[in-house]
């Protein structure tokens, strides 16, 4: 009986590990996407600031 419980516990730990790994990979991907979008936004904003400064001069 104890062996069956240990096997189920081990199966659950494996399943949980895979779930956590999958979530961590998804978080990494989302973070990379966010960083890319943020860099694009910052570049566009910087270009707009430069354009505004040129218009004022």
Kindly list the characteristics that best describe this protein.
single chain, rod-shaped, mainly alpha, 57 residues, 96% helix
Which structural class is indicated by helix and strand composition? Answer: mainly alpha
Strand content: under 5%
- Describe the biggest sheet? none
Helical run tally: 1
Helix content: over 70%
What is the ordering of alpha helices and beta strands? H
Coarse shape = rod-shaped
Per-chain topology:
Layout lengths: L1 H55 L1
Question: What's a concise summary of this model?
Answer:
By secondary structure, the protein is mainly alpha-helical.
Protein model, in words:
The chain has one helix and no strands. 96% of the residues lie in helices and 0% in strands. The mean pLDDT is 95. It has one helix at 2-56. The longest helix is centred in the middle third of the chain and has 55 residues, at 2-56. It is rod-shaped and about 85 Å long. The protein has one domain (1-56). By secondary structure, it is an all-alpha fold.
């Amino acid at each position: 009986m104890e062996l069956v419980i240990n096997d189920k516990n081990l199966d659950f730990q494996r399943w949980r590990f895979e779930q956590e790994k999958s979530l961590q990979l998804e978080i990494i991907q989302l973070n990379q996407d966010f960083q890319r979008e943020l860099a694009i936004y910052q570049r566009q904003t910087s270009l707009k600031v430069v354009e505004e400064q040129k218009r004022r001069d």
